[in-house]
């Protein structure tokens, strides 16, 4: 992503048993590692209720970092991205420290600033059920690594309390993530829809700098902007859209290319619609394509 020109890279953060923040899409790791094939860890499989959902598998917080280092990572969506499975088994799970050191090495190599945009995954569950405070761990790591609010950093979460604590304890820019359904795991009576009302956005602006929204909340089915960006800006919030992906499976039918779900569609068209709606940032799996779209490139 950095080599393709990304302004920021986004590590989703979970935590090991011995308190090390690592980059995984979820704390359940069988979807992104080969843990299920390790007989020595068969007894670690278990079921946990995470944010109201029963999940069965292997969980990062049940492994030490040394144990995680014996695993190798794999493609999370092999059905959509079969070409990526050739990389399965090559890499280890990276720590947040390694991500930061990679960014600094790439800054030295390229001469440009590269930001980090970490997401705290399931902090309420980890604190209430596992007794692990990932807000504390993140702030300690950033301080130890000499990452400051003057650096290009956004910290994001689908939950509210971690962002409010970060607001009280640091000067980092904060992003409230919202989805099309449900609500924050740490506020059972609150829905994301309520948070996106003008009143909800005004309350959000007291602790966050931006909204990180599912694209379907920003664009209607006809491709026209909803009221979200205008309402967010009225509250003093930027809007960042997630997630721009090139495969047909993730694009509106009108932007599909020839082929099945894994074939390339017209993400340039979707980028143009989001830019027209007024978003100030997009998450993407393909920075080079997004940068081309930003610079006026159209669908092939």
Description:
The structure is a single chain. Helices cover 29% and strands 16% of the residues. It has a five-stranded parallel β-sheet. A three-stranded mixed β-sheet has the order 3-2-7. A two-stranded parallel ribbon has the order 1-6. The model has no long low-confidence stretch (mean pLDDT 97). Helix 10 links the parallel strand 11 and strand 12 (281-284). The protein has 300 residues and is of the alpha/beta class. The chain is globular and about 50 Å long. The protein is built from eleven helices and twelve strands. The protein has helices spanning 65-68, 96-110, 123-130, 134-144, 161-169, 192-195, 198-204, 215-218, 228-234, 267-277, 287-294; strands at residues 8-9, 12-15, 21-23, 46-50, 53-57, 115-116, 119-120, 154-157, 173-178, 210-214, 238-244, 281-284.
Characteristics of this structure?
alpha/beta; 12 strands; 29% helix; globular; 300 residues; five-stranded parallel beta sheet; three-stranded mixed beta sheet
Secondary-structure map with pairings?
Elements: E1 8-9, E2 12-15, E3 21-23, E4 46-50, E5 53-57, H1 65-68, H2 96-110, E6 115-116, E7 119-120, H3 123-130, H4 134-144, E8 154-157, H5 161-169, E9 173-178, H6 192-195, H7 198-204, E10 210-214, H8 215-218, H9 228-234, E11 238-244, H10 267-277, E12 281-284, H11 287-294
Parallel strand pairs: 1-6, 2-7, 8-9, 9-10, 10-11, 11-12
Antiparallel strand pairs: 2-3, 4-5
């Amino acid at each position: 992503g950095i080599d393709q020109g990304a302004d920021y890279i986004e590590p989703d953060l979970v935590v090991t048993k011995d308190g090390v923040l690592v980059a995984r899409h979820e704390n359940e790791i069988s979807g992104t590692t080969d843990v299920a094939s390790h007989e020595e860890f068969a007894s670690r499989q278990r079921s946990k209720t995470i944010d109201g959902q029963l999940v069965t598998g292997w969980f990062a917080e049940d492994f030490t970092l040394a144990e995680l280092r014996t695993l190798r990572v794999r493609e999370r969506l092999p059905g959509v991205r079969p070409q990526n499975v050739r990389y399965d088994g090559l890499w280890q799970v990276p720590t947040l420290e390694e991500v930061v050191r990679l960014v600094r090495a790439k800054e030295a190599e390229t001469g440009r600033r590269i930001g980090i945009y970490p997401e705290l995954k399931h902090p309420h569950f980890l604190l209430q059920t596992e007794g692990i405070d990932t807000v504390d761990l993140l702030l300690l790591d950033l301080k130890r690594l000499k990452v400051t609010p003057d650096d290009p950093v956004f910290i994001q979460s689908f939950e509210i309390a971690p962002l409010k604590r970060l607001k009280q304890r640091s000067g980092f820019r904060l992003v409230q993530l919202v989805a099309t359904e449900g609500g924050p795991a740490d506020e059972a009576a609150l829905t994301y829809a309520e948070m996106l009302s003008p009143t909800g956005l005004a309350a959000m602006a007291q602790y966050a700098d931006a909204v990180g929204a599912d694209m379907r909340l920003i664009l209607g089915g006809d491709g026209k902007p909803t009221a979200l960006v205008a309402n967010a800006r009225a509250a003093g919030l930027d809007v960042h859209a997630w997630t721009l992906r090139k495969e047909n499976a993730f694009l509106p039918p009108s932007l599909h290319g020839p082929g099945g779900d894994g074939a390339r569609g017209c993400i340039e068209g979707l980028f143009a619609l989001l830019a027209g709606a007024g978003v100030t940032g997009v998450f993407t799996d393909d920075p080079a394509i997004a940068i081309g779209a930003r610079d006026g490139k159209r669908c092939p």
